[in-house]
Design goal:
With 609 residues, the chain is mainly beta. The protein contains 1 helix and 68 strands.
């Protein structure tokens, strides 16, 4: 009888051997025997094949497996593990103590009365005792963190140490006593309670007697009244700020702290020392005092000094190579805040500023030149000062392509037809005070500083808003939003006049010869008997030719002014406004409304803020 036939007979008549059913990857089995249906190789070396086709813990110690280096005499348990590992109860070694079953040092199961904290993806695992103080009065344990997740009824979970306490709003407790309370609560040590920070306990951390604050929160300090405030050296505080500093200390200019320096802008809230000074003062970090940067030439324009060296310059000033401040960038040497020599590759102008342009006396942006030395003109394209050539004697700078003269020196204007410079000082000339013409060379397109171009006559005058002038001092026609005062020849703004003595200019185009009444109004306005321009377009009700009520809607809000009729207002409900052209001050409101302190119409039941 063959061995195979005999084995088949055994399978037929032995019911126990018919039970094995091995499946690779299940029940910790790595390799199955296809005939016996038994596991031949287990996936873990701490397991051995069982009779059911799977694997079970062997409970046998094997030297060299699972980090064990010595077994006991019965070869059941590991006697000694590699350095840094602990013996488990199944003949192996674990990275963590109190482990019952481990594989390759990783604990799979903890001993009784211990719980395995952390899953396969966690960076840590540990066997934590169920009798740990962390789990006292705990209802649910968070297996990922190893701390309590939910407390039993009547207990509260501390925010800080995640332990269960009977003290509501406690952050951290120990043996029934609260150590620290949650944010916005203070600890009443006498009664072992966490109470909300109210009244005299704002920003208080704890109290011993339950009546006065004993300790303030971090970065808060007691004032003389025993209140916790955010500013030290404060006599009388108000929450984060301070109302009054103690004797010998002064408010910082930003109003946030107390310091010994009168000229301090910003101070340290804890120590009361100055960090920065205001105005013409610099902070000396060596003694934390504010010192004048105008009296000491070495620190002119400086804001911060340390070890007798300037670390920070005022806004608009720049550090020089000799560690001083100057109004010129790229400066090498400074005397009394003025640059006297430039860094390599830069040139000093008459304005004491450094630029990259040689022969430049006034520069802009340290790259572009405004004016070159006498006998030179500026080529805008090349960004250089060239020696004057024929036709460029009065040229100041060229066009962007560098081909033509575009701006002339003072007292000359640029003609855009031949690109030459001509004098502009003759008062009877159309180009008086002109700087540049149009491309035809017939009309002026720009004026010198403090002169304005009349867009109708294309002449320059000293009168802003003038369309056409008789001479530089007298206008004969103004722009639309200006009123011509015939007596003075000036153009006055006619949109909103604040001074009562000039209210006649409101919506007026031109005054009478005496300049004391309007003679011509803008379209839509009528001239009244007293020489003012009155708006009747926005009037909704008239009596005997006089407006008594104005239109008032979302599209246009107006109120009734006794001098000018319906005038614009920002308040939708206002009926009448006062007469001094301050139109947003209401004097009469609709029924069931009242005027508040700001001059607005509000509901009669509404609080006046």
């Amino acid at each position: 009888m063959s061995k195979i036939y005999f084995f088949i007979l055994l399978l037929t008549f032995n019911p126990i051997l018919m039970e094995p059913n091995c499946k690779e990857g299940e029940n910790n089995c790595y390799r199955c025997d296809p005939l016996t249906k038994l596991c031949t190789i287990c996936s873990l070396d701490i397991y051995s094949p069982d009779e059911k086709g799977g694997c079970e813990p062997s409970g046998k110690c094997t030297i060299g497996k699972n980090y064990c280096i010595e077994c006991d005499t019965e070869e059941k348990n590991c006697e000694e593990c590699e350095i840094g590992l602990y013996k488990d109860l199944n003949g192996g070694c674990s990275f963590i103590p109190n482990c019952e079953l481990s594989y390759k040092g990783n604990c799979l199961k903890c001993q009784s009365d211990f719980i395995l904290i952390g899953g396969p993806q966690d960076q840590f695992k540990l066997c934590k005792s169920l009798t740990s103080e962390d789990f006292s009065n705990c209802k649910n344990i968070n297996m990922a963190t190893g701390y309590c997740d939910t407390c039993e009824d009547g207990y509260f979970l501390n925010t800080g140490d995640l332990k269960c306490s009977k003290i509501e709003n406690c952050f951290e407790s120990s043996f029934g006593k609260c150590i620290t309370c949650n944010l916005d609560y203070y600890l009443d040590k006498k009664n072992n309670k966490c109470l909300p920070q109210m009244d005299n306990f704002i920003f208080c951390k704890e109290t011993l007697d339950g009546e006065t604050c004993e300790t303030c929160e971090d970065d808060f300090y007691f004032d003389k009244k025993g209140n916790c405030v955010g500013v030290n050296y404060c006599e009388e505080g108000r929450y984060y700020g301070c109302n009054k500093c103690i004797d010998g200390y002064y408010f910082t200019r930003d109003g946030k702290g107390c310091t010994k320096e009168k000229q301090c802008y910003n101070g340290d809230l804890k120590y009361g020392i100055c960090n920065s000074c205001y105005g013409d003062y610099y902070i000396d970090l060596d003694d934390r005092k504010c010192k004048s940067n105008k009296e000491d030439n070495d620190y002119k324009y400086c804001k911060t000094v340390e070890n007798k060296k300037c670390l920070l310059c005022e806004y608009g000033s720049f550090p020089s190579e000799d560690e001083k401040c100057t109004t010129s960038k790229n400066c090498a040497e400074v005397e009394n805040g003025i640059c006297v020599s430039c860094s390599q590759g830069y040139y000093l102008g008459l304005d004491n500023k450094c630029s990259t342009v040689e022969h430049c006396i006034y520069s802009e942006n340290y790259v572009d030149c405004v004016e070159c030395e006498k006998g030179f003109y500026y080529n805008t394209k090349e960004k250089r000062c060239f020696k004057t050539k024929e036709g460029y004697e009065n040229c100041k700078s060229t066009s962007t392509d560098g081909e033509y003269c575009h701006f002339c020196k003072e007292g000359f204007y640029a003609n855009q037809t031949n690109h030459l410079c001509y004098e502009n000082n003759k008062k009877d000339n159309n180009f008086y005070k002109c700087t540049i013409t149009d491309t035809t060379g017939k009309y002026c397109m720009g004026c010198e500083k403090n002169y304005y171009l009349g867009w109708k006559d294309k002449k320059c005058s000293k009168i802003n808003g003038c369309e056409s002038s008789e001479n530089e001092e007298k206008c004969i026609e103004c722009e639309e939003r200006y009123c011509l005062d015939v007596k003075t020849g000036k153009c006055e703004n006619n949109e909103k006049i604040l001074k009562e003595e000039k209210k006649l200019y409101y919506r007026c185009i031109q005054t009478n010869d005496e300049g004391d009444a309007c003679e011509k109004c803008l379209d839509g306005f009528e001239l009244s008997e007293n020489g003012l321009c009155v708006d009747k377009i926005h009037c909704s009700i008239e009596k005997d030719g006089v407006c008594v009520k104005c239109k008032n809607n979302k599209a246009y809000s107006s109120c009734l002014n006794s001098d000018f009729g319906c005038v614009p207002t920002s308040y939708l409900k206002c009926i009448k406004c006062n007469n001094n052209l301050n139109f947003d001050i209401c004097t009469k409101c609709p029924e069931y409304h009242k005027i508040n302190k700001k001059g607005e119409c509000i509901d009669i039941d509404e609080d006046d803020e």
